[in-house]
């Protein structure tokens, strides 16, 4: 199973959409709220170079924003 990390904020609608997509497809993930977790924010910035959310890390492959096609491809859905 892929290791999935979602870097998000509580107020981001695209973050909620991404997490709902993962839940609907029974994909386990770790959710890191970068609004409340400074270490998580630092990790997200180092991985993506982006400050916008969501940033989704799937086994080291970075997806910026909610990109359903890219998620399906990487996760084999």
Outline:
The protein has helices at about 15-25, 40-50, 70-75; strands at about 5-10, 30-35, 55-60, 60-65. With about 80 residues, the chain is an alpha+beta fold.
Structure report:
This protein has a four-stranded mixed β-sheet, sandwiched between helices. The model has no long low-confidence stretch (mean pLDDT 96). It is built from three helices and four strands, in the order E-H-E-H-E-E-H. The relative contact order is 0.25. 40% of the residues lie in helices and 22% in strands. The chain has helices at 13-24, 38-48, 68-75, and strands spanning 4-8, 30-33, 55-58, 61-64. The longest helix is centred in the N-terminal third of the chain and has 12 residues, at 13-24. With 77 residues, the protein is of the alpha+beta class. The two termini are 12 Å apart. It has a single domain (4-75), classed as Glutaredoxin (3-Layer(aba) Sandwich), CATH 3.40.30.10.
What secondary-structure arrangement, pairings included, does this model have?
Blueprint: E1 4-8, H1 13-24, E2 30-33, H2 38-48, E3 55-58, E4 61-64, H3 68-75
Parallel strand pairs: 1-2
Antiparallel strand pairs: 1-3, 3-4
Specify the helix fraction band.
Answer: 40-55%
Task: Tell me the strand percentage band.
Answer: 15-25%
CATH superfamily: Glutaredoxin
User: What is the approximate shape?
Assistant: globular
Question: What is the CATH first-level class name?
Answer: Alpha Beta
Spans of at least 5 consecutive residues with low confidence: none
Q: CATH topology, what is it called? A: Glutaredoxin
Order of helices and strands: EHEHEEH
Instruction: Output the radius of gyration.
Output: 11 Å
Average pLDDT score: 96
Distance between the termini: 12 Å
Instruction: Please give the order of strands in the largest beta sheet.
Output: 2-1-3-4
Number of helices: 3
Number of domains: 1
Which structural class is indicated by helix and strand composition? alpha+beta
The name of the CATH architecture is 3-Layer(aba) Sandwich
- Largest sheet properties: 4 strands, mixed
Q: What's the total number of strands? A: 4
């Amino acid at each position: 199973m892929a290791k999935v990390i979602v870097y998000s904020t509580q107020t981001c609608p695209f973050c909620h959409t991404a997490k709902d997509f993962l839940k609907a497809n029974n994909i386990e993930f770790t959710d890191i709220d970068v609004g409340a977790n400074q270490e998580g924010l630092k990790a997200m910035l180092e991985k993506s170079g982006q400050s916008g959310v969501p940033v989704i890390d799937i086994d080291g492959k970075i997806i910026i924003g909610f990109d359903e096609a890219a998620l399906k491809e990487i996760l084999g859905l």
